[in-house]
Structure formats: C-alpha cells, structure tokens
Specification:
It is found in: Membrane. Helix content is 53%, strand content 14%. With 652 residues, it is of the alpha+beta class. The chain has a 9-stranded mixed beta sheet with strand order 5-4-6-7-1-8-13-12-11, with helices on both faces.
Length: 652
C-alpha cells in the first residue's frame, strides 16, 4: 500500500479543528480530569478517528466538486480505504492501552455510525431525516459523552444537568450541519443523496439553523443555571456574538443572491464559528481548571454542661475571701457581654464536697496539676471533636473520600494525638494525610484554613477535614490579676469541624469560595497575649491593651493590602472579648449590626479560642440569602504575638 500526498490530503486532518469544540467543552466540564488519558483521547479523536471518517467518506463518494475543507479534492485510490482501516484499528488499540475500555467502546460505536452514514451498502446520508439525526446524535451528544469518558475515565450519571448539556451539544451540531451542506445540493443530488438542507431550501436552511442554535442556547442556559453558573452562559454569548453577526450577514447575502451559498462563504462561516467556539471553551477550561478551594460545611459542638455567666462568676467569687478581688471579679464579669458558657467540667455549679475535678474545698487548693488537666483533655477532646464532625451532612459517605485531616488545639496535647484518635474513632482511611496546628491560639482556625486552601489548590479532588477543639475551662486557676480575671471570665469549651474541598458543594445556598489570606504580627503586643506551661496549668498573659492594638492596626492593615470595609457585606470576626469587638467595629466605622453573629456567639458561648471564629462563620453562612451571590465575607481572628489573621471569602 503506497500512501501519497493526495491520500493524506483526503483525510482532511485540519478539518478536525472544526470538530474540536465539543471535546474542549467536555474537558472544561468534566468533574475529574486524568490528564494523560485526556491527552491520548484528544490525539485519538482528532488525528485518527475524524481523519479516518473523512477519508472513508471521500473514498466512497469520490467527490469531484468541493467538499468540507477541500475546494478541489483529488480522486481517491484504494490506499485511502486501507489507510482508514489502519487508523481506526490503531485508534481502538491505543484507546484500550492508554485511555480506558469505555472510551474504546465509544470509538467502536462512533466508527460504526460513521461507516453506516457513508457506505454504499447502508448509505444513511441519502435519507434526509435519518442522515441528519445520525450526524446530530453522534457528532453532538455522543461525542460529548465519549469525550467525557476519555477525559475523566468514566461516564457521567444522566441527571437533569447532564441531559441539558447533551441536548445543547446535539442542537449545536443540528444548527451547524445543514449549513455545511448548503453549497452541495447539486453534487449531492448527482450522487443520489437528498439532504435536509436541500429539502429546506437555501432560505429554509438559514432559518432552521437559527432555530437550532436558539434551542442550543436554551439548553446551555438550563445546564449552567442548574449548576449555579449562570455567568458562564453569558460569557459564552460574548464569544458567540461574532458567529451570529457573520451568520446574519451571510443570510442577507444569500437572500439577495442564492449564489452566495457557496463553498468559500461556507468555509468562512466554519472558520469563524470554530475559532470563536474553541476560544470560548478554552476560556472555560482555564476558568474551571484554575485551582480553587471552597468551604463546603461547618458544624459545631459544645459539651453537655452549660453554665450561666452568673453561675461561673459565683464559682470564681467563692474561691476568694478578698473583697477587692471579689469586686474586680464582679466588675469584669458585668462587662463581658456573655450570658452562657460550656465546659467539660461538671463542678462549676456544685458544692465543694461534690467536686469531681477541683479539690473538694471552697478555696480550690491544692489546684489540679498540669498532668490532671491533660488527662481530662485527653478524655473529652476526642469525644467533643467527633460530635462536631459527625454533624456534617452525609459524613459517613464522605469520610472514605477525605484526603487530609488537620487538627487544631492549644489547650491540650497528648500522643498519639487527637488526629490519630479521630482516625480510629471515625474509621478514616489509615493513609489519610495528617497535620496539626498546635498552641497557636484563637486565630489557629484561619491558619488551618490557609493550609487547607493550599492543599486544595495544589491537589485536584482534595477534601480536607479541619477540626478545632479547645477545652479552655480545664485551665481555670485561682488567680486574681488582670490576666486571669479576663481568662477565667470569658473562656469556654467548644469544637468546630470544617470541610474544605477543591470542588464547590451545595451545602449552603451559595458555594463559599476561599479567596485570600493576610497576616500581621504586632511586635509591640508581644507580651500582651501569651501563655506558658506551668506545673499547675497555663500561665496566662491577656492584657487589656489588646483591643487598643487591634483598633489601631486593623484599618492600616486592610489599607496596606488594598481592602476597604465597604467592599464586604458580611463579617465573621473572632469575639476575643466584647471590647475587642466594639473597638474593631469602631476602627472600621462599621455599624455593629454587621457584627451581630460575632456578638451572638460571644453572648451564647464566650470565647472558645480557635473554634470560636468558625462558630461565627457558620452563623454567617447559614443566614445567606439568594441575593447575596457575589458578596464578599471578611473573617478575622487574633492570637498570641500579637498576631492578626484574616481570610476573605466569596459567595459564588
């Protein structure tokens, strides 16, 4: 078999460019992409399957006049027939070796349909309706389905959205195909082929094409809006505009002179359509394949023991006979803005003789040791964390797909740690990747989210579970300086679990996209928020200067990174204390109603250290409304050092 230049020419390989849009569209929409399979699928379809189909059609038809891609086609020889068989066979073998069986099966069906369309024995193309439907189905919906199989390694479930996109693809081909035949009427009739375009006539073909593209747009609109991606539909319309303009101009020319329905104008239409659609779907690929991360769920849990602020204040008051200390306790307690706090300790509303954790004396002496405090932490932290995690909707189905686990705590440590305990208790994948954020205080949740964001943006398909658990009340100590007055009267216990994913979820009314993070260390506040370990627990430094430091620095920090408070509609600010929240609002000139979730969490739970900002964010996200699409959320928390950590989110 000798292969000459004319034989290669009749494969019309450049014509694959006109058939490329649906593959690119499928690539842009596939939930998962196996890149090496996608590359082989692309090469097989466009360099083997399409050319073989073109070549076989040319061999059977022996066209003497212009055909798609060739104005003056050469006469085919027997070598063209053998070459098309070789290309088809090679395509199937490569598909089995380098892509997958489903994709190879789709190729077999596509080849069979292509041969049935052209062959003299079956000759589907000579029937206007059957031939039209064969092309529309196999070059439309079936090609999209086949491309998804090649790109992702599996077929998609035929849900409502996928039915819309398949119909959209088929109507796209239904509009384009008759238009490509509009100049071939005489040649087709000479070969005994009556096309749909001939039946419709010149003007009818243009009107039919306009109707098909309208229906294509309807189904694309339904598809993208069903996925909450309506903006993508309008992006597509921008790219389709030149096609519509030229189509209208060409229609005008044909209306005036039927001779304008010629090969050159048809090819010009093909090139404009292909360039615009390929460009459009490449943009969609860029948009959809830019690595992103989303907060897919936040759930919280608190211990069973709920205490009023009055009960906790009374417990503190009973620990001293010093009137000055009692007076200071009452003053500070009255200014906290807290009504309730939760604790794993059951002693705070009992008589001394019934204490289980503290020494059974009103003076609380001797105080529990650090060892005893860590023992109670180990006993309760896993249980509380598990309670928060298991509230995540569908967690039993999700847990096998988790790729990473990040645990966050600053109130207790043990080994094997909280991460390993949770893996055992929840029966997580033993190969899950683990990390911990320890001893970083109230803003550690944002630091953990920053790590999860980096993971999702570097690993497509990542699902990161973050668990922030703090048992602050186990560090209650019989001290009365300003640092301990604050810490004993504002801290509570709680846990929050966050699911961060590389793909958006429909847990909330809008997907919650993580945008950016920013940090600031205020070295002049180094000693104003700190703690150290001691034999009897943590030695706390929690200065009353902290609110002043935040108030003076938060606005300059935002200005330095180019942010203005009015750019954000929603705020999730860590309630480190009532004065911190008040001064934060004052510094940014915010109406306090914007910080209602922060005040609510402070009122009902107190400051639980790292999970607290997540309690606030959970309330913000659950109150989102349909009209909030596109709105931005500013999240901030404050920790030792003094450090400010911020995160920007967006409803999409």
């Amino acid at each position: 078999m000798s292969i000459d230049g004319n034989t290669i020419k009749l494969l019309r390989i450049p014509f694959s460019f006109f058939l490329l849009p649906l593959f690119l569209f499928a690539y842009s929409q596939a939930q998962t992409v196996i890149h090496h399979q996608a590359l082989f699928a692309f090469l097989i379809i466009h360099l083997l399957i399409y050319p073989a189909s073109n070549g076989y059609n040319s061999y059977v038809d022996k066209d003497e006049d212009s055909i798609g891609g060739l104005e003056k086609p050469p006469m085919p020889t027997k070598s063209l027939f053998y070459l098309t068989i070789f290309l088809d066979f090679t395509a199937i073998v490569l598909a089995l070796l380098f892509v997958n069986t489903m994709f190879a099966g789709c190729l077999v069906l596509y080849i069979a349909a292509s041969r049935a369309y052209s062959s003299r024995q079956v000759r589907l193309k000579k029937y206007p309706i059957i031939g039209f439907l064969t092309v529309v189905i196999f070059q439309g919906a079936f090609t999209y389905y086949m491309s998804i199989a090649g790109v992702s390694g599996s077929a998609f479930v035929l849900n409502e959205a996928h039915i819309y996109v398949l119909l959209g693809c088929s109507f796209q081909i239904a509009g384009a195909y008759p238009l490509t035949q509009v100049y071939q009427h005489k040649q087709d009739l000479k070969d005994g082929v009556v096309t749909l375009s001939y039946k419709l006539g010149y003007i009818g073909t243009f009107l039919f094409t306009a109707l098909m593209f309208l229906l294509c747009n309807v189904f694309y609109y339904l598809y993208f809006t069903s996925k909450d991606l309506g903006m993508v539909f309008y992006i597509i319309q921008v790219f389709f505009l030149p096609i519509v303009v030229y189509f209208g101009y060409w229609f005008y020319l044909v209306w005036k002179d039927r001779g304008e329905a010629n090969f050159r104008n048809t090819m010009r239409m093909n090139w404009i359509a292909a360039i615009c659609m390929n460009s459009c779907f490449i943009v969609l690929i860029v948009i959809n394949r830019i690595p992103l991360s989303y907060i897919s769920a936040i759930e919280t849990a608190v211990p069973e023991h709920c205490y009023s602020q009055e009960a906790l204040t009374s417990f503190y008051l009973k620990s001293t006979d010093d009137l000055t200390n009692k007076r200071k306790i009452k003053i500070v307690a009255g200014k906290t803005g807290i009504e309730n706090r939760y604790s794993v300790i059951s002693d705070f509303d009992k008589s001394p003789e019934d204490y289980e954790f503290f020494n059974k004396t009103a003076t609380l002496l001797p105080e529990p040791t650090l060892t005893e405090r860590m023992q109670i932490y180990q006993r309760h932290a896993t249980k509380l964390s598990k309670s928060a995690i298991e509230k995540i909707k569908g967690f039993e189905q999700i847990k096998s797909t988790l790729t990473h686990l990040i645990t966050v705590t600053c109130t207790g440590l043990f080994a094997p740690g909280l991460d390993v305990e949770l893996m055992r208790e929840l029966d997580l994948n033993p190969a899950i990747q683990r990390s911990s954020v320890n001893f970083m205080g109230c803003n550690a949740a944002i630091i953990a989210l920053k790590n999860a964001d980096a993971i999702c943006k570097s690993q497509p398909g990542a699902k990161v579970l973050i668990v922030c658990t703090e048992l602050c009340t186990i560090h209650f100590q019989k001290r009365y300086n300003d640092d301990y007055l604050l810490s004993n009267l504002i801290f509570g216990d709680g846990s929050a679990a966050v699911l961060v994913t590389a793909e958006p979820d429909k847990h909330y009314i809008h997907a919650v996209q993580i945008d950016t993070f920013n940090s600031l260390i205020l070295h002049n506040g180094y000693s104003d928020m700190a703690w150290q370990l001691s034999e009897t627990g943590f030695i706390m430094n929690l200065s009353s200067y902290v609110p002043d430091l935040i108030r003076k620095n938060i606005k300059p920090m935002m200005a330095k990174i180019g942010l203005a408070a009015e750019s954000f509609k929603h705020w999730a600010v860590h309630p480190g204390g009532k004065r911190i929240v008040d001064d934060f609002a004052s510094a940014l000139e915010l109406d306090k109603c914007h910080l209602a979730p922060t005040y609510n969490v402070l009122k009902n739970y107190g400051n639980m250290s790292s999970p607290t900002v997540l309690f606030v964010l959970k309330e913000v996200l659950e109150k989102a409304k349909p009209e909030n699409a596109g709105n931005r959320i500013f999240t901030a928390a404050f920790g030792p050092g003094l450090s400010i950590e911020t995160m920007q989110l967006r409803y999409v």
